[in-house]
Amino acid sequence: MTDDGAMADALARLEDLRAGAIATISGTDSSAGLEEARIRFTGKKSDLTAIMRVMGTLSPEDRKTLGAAANSVKGAIEQALESRGAELRARELEDRLERERLDVTLPGTPYAIGYRHPAMRTMRELIRIFEQMGYSVYEGPEVEWDLYNFQLLNFPPDHPSRDLQDTFYVTDDMLLRTQTSPGQLRIMKEQRPPIRSIVPGMVYRDEAEDATHLSEFFQIEGLAVDTNITLGDLKGTLTEVVQRFFGRERGVRFRPHYFPFTEPSAEIDISCFACGGAGCRSCGGEGWLELGGAGMVHPVVLQNGGIDPDEYSGFAFGIGPDRFTMMRGHITDVRLLRHGDLRFLRQFN
Ligand code: DAH
User: Fold this and answer.
1) Which of 317, 319, 322, 323 maximizes ligand 1 atoms within 8 Å of its Cβ, making it the mutation to test the pocket?
2) What is the pLDDT of residues 149-202, one digit of tens each?
3) Would the CB of 295 count as within 6 Å of ligand 1?
4) For residue 52, what are the domain limits?
């Protein structure tokens, strides 16, 4: 049985639905609103579903017609949803780009730029100077045998000079080196003359620290062994090193001293940075400040290193780079160089 009234009514409602839906969809202003419209116009409880309920009362012919009309309306609604969706997405993207605009002209987050610690800078500069003068760098161990740190350097077990260099013992015959001088023996046992070597590194002593003493401090040992090495070579070498580091106006003085492993021995002084040698408070009225020790390698030490003292001679020195840093930076308390206080360290940047 066919109900013409119901069919016409359904077709009219479909047309209304198409017009109403398309108007609503094109007036929708957000993705969320569009989603609501999609459910309302195409979902299970939509007007479209309601209209299609008359299907059961129609003739097969009308059913076909109404089905086609419904599909066309559904297609039109879906198309409207699709194109409005694309518009809205494009607009929302544009809004977001506008909102989250990146201002590439804003200054960035600054990185703190590091710089070398003044003590390490001194070490590197001194090593560089020696390298330029033809010296090679040898690194000995910080944990050293008593044999190398003392005995082979002519400090027998009960030698009073050991008292000046008490240290931290690992075992009875192994210790934290008190000086870089054991490097001399290690070099001589490995290399044949001509030798021009330095041994830079940390040394350790059981020391009550004060403004001019640390229990861990830097040394640079030097060793030159060759035929006809003289005290003049030693003086010339150290004067050159000091002047390259501090400037040509600096004077160097050699003062007689005693070390078990050199003969003759001397302490090396540099003219005071404050008074230039006249004597002032910085140098305790002396006009000179101590930089290290030096001397001609003792024949026994050459022999201990497997080198014939009748054929070869040598000079050696040990300088204290922390003193160099203090003098150059006018630092009156050496402990400041180990405390890591940036307010202090930044001054040397
Ligand atoms: N090793 C000595 C010290 O720490 C310094 C020294 C003096 C080194 C004389 C030398 C030297 O090579 O010849 O007190």
Assistant:
1) 317
2) 999 999 988 888 888 888 999 999 999 999 999 999 999 999 999 999 999 999
3) yes
4) 3-99
